[in-house]
């Protein structure tokens, strides 16, 4: 009886850890495109478009679109 109750407890803990890992994976994959885009826009090469306000708006739009796209993909796959 004690052995079965311990197995039940370990199973519940493993299920909770799986839920936590799933959430952390979604957060990290959602933030990865933003990190790449911000890293590329912060490099020291000269570009006429990156230093303007239009370049900033494009950068923010890319970050929002990639993050929303990843979240929509996660939602569809469950």
Summary, kept brief:
By secondary structure, the chain is mainly α. The chain has helices at 2-41, 53-77. It has a single domain, classed as Methane Monooxygenase Hydroxylase, Chain G, domain 1 (Up-down Bundle), CATH 1.20.58.
Task: Provide keyphrases for this structure.
78 residues; Methane Monooxygenase Hydroxylase, Chain G, domain 1; 2 helices; mainly alpha; rod-shaped
Structure description:
- The chain has 78 residues and is an all-alpha fold.
- The chain has 2 helices and no strands.
- α1 runs antiparallel to α2.
- The chain is rod-shaped.
Beta-strand segment tally: 0
Instruction: Return the structural class.
Output: mainly alpha
Tertiary shape: rod-shaped
Report the β-strand fraction as a percent range: under 5%
Give the termini separation: 36 Å
Question: Could you say what the CATH topology is called?
Answer: Methane Monooxygenase Hydroxylase, Chain G, domain 1
- Largest sheet properties: none
Output the CATH class name: Mainly Alpha
Helix segment count?
2
- Helical percentage: over 70%
Write down the secondary-structure element order: HH
CATH superfamily assignment? Magnesium transport protein CorA, transmembrane region
Total domain modules:
1
**Can you name the CATH architecture?**
Up-down Bundle
Give the mean pLDDT.
Answer: 81
Low-confidence stretches: none
Chain-wise SSE layout:
Blueprint: H1 2-41, H2 53-77
Helix pairs in contact: 1-2
């Amino acid at each position: 009886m004690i052995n079965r109750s311990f197995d039940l407890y370990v199973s519940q803990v493993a299920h909770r850890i799986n839920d936590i890992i799933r959430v952390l994976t979604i957060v990290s994959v959602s933030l990865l495109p933003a990190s790449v885009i911000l890293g590329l826009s912060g490099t020291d090469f000269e570009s006429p478009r990156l230093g303007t306000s239009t370049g900033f708006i494009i950068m923010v739009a890319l970050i929002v679109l990639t993050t929303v796209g990843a979240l929509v993909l996660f939602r569809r796959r469950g």
